[in-house]
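Reopening this one. Same input as before:
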Amino acid sequence: MIDVMRKAHNERGFTLAELLAVLLVLGGLSAIAVLSVAHFVGHGTAEAANTEVHNVLAAISSCMADAGTNKLDSEAPVNWDGTENIVTATSSGGVVYDAADSLRGKRLNASYIVAPDGSITGVASQKWSGVVWENGHWKKAK
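Same output, byte for byte:
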């Protein structure tokens, strides 16, 4: 029994100060990691929304290119959420091309105001959270 107590007494371990120092370092590293992840989460929504705008503009451009024209059929701006038969262009041969056919997914998180020249002039409504429409693109809300 005395032999066991001697062995336990002679063994070395970490002191309380060393353990607290390790905990402080790990706590600091985890705080930095949490702040970095939070930064990316906020910007991810804005990037996704801007990707949607890019896809919408590509679909509209494709529609007008297929029709061989530089304007859409509508004479006034229209609200478009990806629904078929709203943003169309007609070729000189009378073939109607629909921008919705070029969209992937077909569900948009916003209803964009599309001018007759194919540009996006604004947003009528949106489902995105944490972003606002400013100067032709989405920005993270402040």
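So the earlier flakiness isn't reproducible anymore. For the record, Residues 82 and 106 are 6 Å apart (CA to CA).
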